[in-house]
Amino acid sequence: MELIKKLKPIWFLLALSPAVYLVYLIVTDGLGPDPAKTVVEFLGTWALRLLWVTLSLTPLKLITGSGQFIAIRRMMGLYAFFYASLHLAAYLVFMLGLRWSNLWEDILERPYITVGFAAWLVLLPLAVTSTNKMIRRLGKKWKQLHKGVYLAACLVILHFIWLAKSNLLEPIIYLTILILLFALRLIKQTAKTKPVVAND
Amino acid sequence: EKFPGRKVWPSSTDEALTPYQDITRYNNFYEFGTKKGDPAKHAGSLITDPWSVIIDGAVEKPGTYTLEDILKPHDFEERIYRLRCVEAWSMVVPWVGFQLGDLLKRFNPTSKAKYVAFTTLNDPEQMPGLKLPFSSIEWPYVEGLRIDEAMNPLAFIGVGLYGKAMPPQNGAPLRLVVPWKYGFKSIKSIVKITLVDKEPPTTWNKSAPNEYGFYSNVNPNVSHPRWSQKRERRLPSSLFNPNYVETQLFNGYAEQVAHLYKGMDLAKYY
């Protein structure tokens, strides 16, 4: 049963649903008195969540032995980038009123924005090179390049921890999940390579 | 209408008021949770009657006073103040209350009273936010003012807004309102006022001293590590027509308070 693969349109719609919900909130005036902040935080949270979903697919494959999870990895990764880009755009348009000079000032002077922007910059080439054509053209280099997603995830969690004012509960939950996902890869990969080492 | 005979303060701002539902549903009161909507959801559990306030330290008449004792001699006044949050948003609020200085004078501060220290209620049974793990804040919430700041006619004790009793999420039954300082200085749900001779510790300063100073005067020229302080979003704001206004030094109250800081480097004493 290749359910994950077969239900691809469902995953597509599920990942899109936060954006649809946000549009609904905008149209129905349901964002509260400070809509700019609400929108920026909403998009940032979903960018993080979808990046974490993307990063969970390989560990899921390693655990279950089923390769079908990889079928939705590109889609989820692109969704993470989609929400991250909207997050950045909403910050620039709604919070800064399109004052580019304020954006540069924030990127230079406010460390949590610096690392958040850096995370987006790391994700950008990954999104650009996600087409089949680019995968073929880049060959081995593609895999190397796309390891950048680990760096992006570290920057994203740093961004999230740094911007928390006092309550670290939420960032710590996401950090724990990230560490778990990284650990699963390491354990499974070491387990996989061990017999080879033993045969040497 | 809880304060029918309230006086009208002649210096109130004539800027558009922030609607009641926004003032009461968009709050920073971390004792009830860290999200803006949390206090409105959870502060119903705050018991404001009976309430008492300890007044001690460098005063001739220390003691524990009931809320009735505290309020009785004062004539209530409505003052419309700008409220500027350090997070770069602001509101215009019609408070009801009385001057802090009038309250303090009743207890005869002595010559040792150089500062005033305030404490918020600290009861996890009533305040679910106090039970959250991984908080960098040390409870109870404490704040402070220099005595001359506290005696300035603008420093105010709020007991209501929009002519109604103070909602719990806004700091019932009594809170400080210091309109020329960032909002977090205006400590809510006060249970203790102590007159002291040294600068008292303040909550956000303890949590992140490089971000929040003791004075925390609204100042567009002193940048904050998290938010540019040059502008503010006046709430309610809307997405496509954001209501930005330029932030003013001392939140526009320079005429009344600038003399308190004469000769002080405001970038150093932020």
From TrEMBL, chain A:
It is a multi-pass membrane protein. Residues 43-156 form the Ferric oxidoreductase domain. Binds 1 heme b (iron(II)-protoporphyrin IX) group per subunit. Binds 1 FMN per subunit. This is Protein-methionine-sulfoxide reductase heme-binding subunit MsrQ. Heterodimer of a catalytic subunit (MsrP) and a heme-binding subunit (MsrQ). One of its GO terms (biological process) is protein repair. Belongs to the MsrQ family. GO terms for cellular component: plasma membrane. The lineage of its organism: Bacteria, Pseudomonadati, Pseudomonadota, Gammaproteobacteria, Oceanospirillales. Keywords: Cell membrane, Electron transport, Flavoprotein, FMN, Heme, Iron, Membrane, Metal-binding, Transmembrane, Transmembrane helix, Transport. The chain crosses the membrane at residues 7-26, 46-64, 76-98, 110-128, 148-165, 171-187. Its cofactor is heme b; FMN.
